[in-house]
Structures are given as C-alpha cells and as structure tokens.
What we know:
Blueprint: E1 2-7, H1 13-25, E2 29-34, H2 39-46, E3 51-54, H3 61-66, E4 72-75, H4 85-90, E5 94-97, H5 103-118, E6 134-138, H6 142-153, E7 157-161, H7 167-171, E8 176-177, H8 181-187, E9 190-193, H9 207-211, E10 218-221, H10 230-239, E11 244-247, H11 254-257, E12 264-266, H12 276-296
Helix pairs in contact: 1-12, 5-6
This protein binds 3-phosphoglyceric acid.
Residues 9, 55-56, 77-79, 102, 270, 272-274 line the site of 3-phosphoglyceric acid (3PG).
Amino acid sequence: MKVLVATEKPFAAAAVDGIKKEIEGAGNELVLLEKYTDVQDLLNAVKDADALIVRSDKVNAAVLDAAENLRIVVRAGAGYDNIDIEYAKKKNVVVENTPGQNSNAVAELVFGLLVFACRSFYSGKTGNELKGKKIGILAYGNVGRNVARIAKGFGMELYAYDAFCPKEAIEKDGVVAVDSQDKLFTDCDIVSLHIPATPQTVKSINKELVGKMKKNAIIINTARKEVIDEAGLLEIMKVRTDLKYITDIKPDADAEFQTFEGRYYSTPKKMGAQTAEANINAGIAAAVQINAYFKDGCTKFQVNK
Ligand code: 3PG
C-alpha cells in the first residue's frame, strides 16, 4: 500500500524516520510531500495514495476526489476540522486522529506564553506571578488535563468547564468543576481555551463572555482561531483596557489586535504541537494506525463512523 505523508508544516526529521520505519516495516511504501506551497502538488501526490497522513493540511472534497485509491486519512494530531469528514464518509474513506499524542507540547506552550505575558513580555516592566491565580480550563480533554497538571506545579487554583466530561472526572484531579462556561469566565484570572472548532463553538468566545472577566484577566488560546468572535473581542478590549489576549493562532484581525500594545501577543506561526517529541508521538501513532487498518481493519480512532 502507498502511504503519502503530506505536510505543509513538516514533521521533525526524527518523526519522519520513525514513520518510515513503521510503514516500510509493515511492507508498505512511504511517499513524502513536505513544505508544499501549491495545493496542486497535493492533488498530484494523492492521486495513487492508499493512505494519507496530514497535520493541519486541508483535506477537502477536491483532495478526496483526486485521491482515487484512498482508503484512510490520519490527522497526526487532535483537531480534525481541516478534514471534510462527511464527504470522506460518503467516499468510504476512514478518517482518524491521534488523540493525546501532542497534548503535552500544547500544554507546555500555554505556560511558556503565560509567563511571557505575565512578565510584561520580558520588557523589564513589573509583572505578575502565576502562583495563587485562578486558571480556568475550558474543555477538560487531553490538553486541558495536561494544563491542570502543570498549573498545580505553579501553585495555581484550578477550575474547569467541560460540557461533555462528568464533574467527578474533573474533580478527581483536584480541579473545581464549574457549572457553566460563564462562571469560568466570571471567576478566573486566566482562561485557557481547549475547545475544538465545531458549529457550536465557532465564535463562542464573544464580547459578552469576555466582558464578564475579572480586572486584569488574560485569555490564552492554543485551540483554534475560529472559536473567537474577533470583532467582539476587539470591541471589548477597546473598552476594557486591562484585558490581555495571548494566542498561538494568529487572528485574521492580527493588525487590529497589534494596536493593543502590551496586551496582545500571537506566535508568528502555530507552534503548540511543534516539538520533536509531539511530532514523533503523533507521526508514529498515525503510521501504526494505518498499518493496523490495512492489516486487521482496525478503526479504533475513526472520527467519521
Ligand atoms: C492539533 O490539533 O493536534 C494541533 O492543533 C496541532 O496542529 P499542527 O499539527 O498543525 O501543529
């Protein structure tokens, strides 16, 4: 079977080596398409692929139509909003993700960015400490749990809200499970976003919600830019000159956010999962899942059942 790895943002070299070893070790063939800038390159490369490994690369109807032999796509990572899963289902293409494999990398970046923001972006100006502050974790999945683990080390007070996770599962980790998203925003000094981009969450972080936050509050986004109502956030940050927005996903309105000097920061390119460890974990997991699918028909991680 021909397995194409198509990554506009490439994996670390060690991850590619690991993927190659897994795929070829199972008697399959590996083809690499890295750092492509033209979608036509992807359309050409996918033509005779039986399996596809991607990161945030868009796998839309055009890609799925071009891929005549395709049977499985694995998103090496958590969020699969870059893949048209319904169209894939219509075409009998299995779509999987690799949950949990890059979550520590994202959670560590949350704290890298938080310390940077709390210390006035290393400008030399007096900053604040994380110890004793209330952190609100919005969605208690794999990343949220790692954020909680690290926040304990900083001596923070932990709160979380997750519409789908039972309260007991949150509280057994020593985290206060609040009853609503509103309460998380009202009560916490910092809110860290870990919700996926779904029809329910898109633009859900809006003016009204952010306006409820405490004085000097910080929102940190290592999830998806789509969950932010950018117009609403810009509006409230103009009025509430104490609020900070820190993100790993550059907003469409980056230039306007840049005018909030000392209150806004975006990484130049999404880098939450950009560690060798995360690439190795997620990349090899993707290869193992593809081998298992071809060998035994295993679809344990399928997201378009
Ligand atoms: C994910 O959904 O797993 C993360 O957002 C990582 O995305 P990336 O592979 O584009 O870095």
